[in-house]
Amino acid sequence: METKDIVTKSTIKETNTDFEVRSLDTICINESQMQHPWWHSIKYLVAGSLFGIVLVKAEVISWFRIQEMFRLQSFHMYGVIGTAVATGISSVWLIKKFKVKTMYGEPIELHPKQFNKGQIYGGLLFGAGWALTGACPGPLYALIGTGATVIIVTLLSAIAGTWVYGLLREKLPH
Amino acid sequence: MQFWEWIKEPWPWYVAGPLIGLVVPLLLIMGNKAFGVSSSLRHICAACIPADIPFFKYNWRKESWNLFFVAGILLGAIIAANWLDRGEPIAVNPRLQTELEEYNIRNYSSLVPLDLFNWPSLFTVRGFILMVAGGFLVGFGTRYAGGCTSGHAIMGLSNLQWPSLVATCCFMAGGFVTANLLIPIVLNL
Question: How many helices (DSSP H) and strands (DSSP E) are in chain A?
Answer without folding.
Answer: 8, 0
